[in-house]
Specification:
Length: 157
């Protein structure tokens, strides 16, 4: 995990890129891993944990109607908005966002282990990935954070 974070930070430093993270299901794991790398303060601007629908709406400016119809923010549109809105607010080159259900409970139409990851890039736009992970709540969160870092790293190259 740390290797991905180190690679992301080094690439950002080398290229003059700035990064932000909008997290829900990963609960701050992405920001924690990125900020554990020496030099991260040069390129990592902000990490936001917007866990509730209300936080996604007020902090990340996700449309209220989208939050309501998706049952709290479990939708491709929501995670796309999370990534794009935070990147635009801080003029970041890259943004990563996560939303989903780590379990053990689930939301109607959104099974335990389903995670949405969005990666925004100024140069190539926004991509959303719909993934499924097995395991405990913590394992799902860790796997989601690792996958999000991998998707961000791939977009940076």
């Amino acid at each position: 995990m740390k290797d991905k974070a180190q690679s992301i930070i080094q690439k950002a430093i080398d290229c003059g890129f700035f990064i932000v993270a909008a997290e829900s299901v990963t609960g701050g794991r992405i920001a924690s891993r990125l900020t554990s790398v020496p030099g991260a303060s040069k390129v990592f601007i902000i990490g936001v944990v917007a866990y509730s629908g209300e936080a996604k709406e007020k902090t990340l400016l996700v449309d209220h109607h989208e939050i309501e119809i998706s049952g709290g923010g479990y939708s491709e549109k929501t995670v796309r908005c999370m990534a794009e809105n935070l990147a635009r607010a801080y003029d970041a080159d890259f943004s990563v966002a996560t939303s989903g259900c780590a379990g053990p409970d689930y939301s109607e139409g959104f099974d335990k282990g389903r995670v949405l990851i969005s990666v925004y890039s100024k140069r190539s736009g926004t991509k959303v990935f719909d993934l499924r992970f097995e395991g405990t709540r913590e394992e799902v969160q860790d796997k989601a954070a690792e996958s999000a870092l991998q998707k961000l790293l791939e977009e940076m190259h």
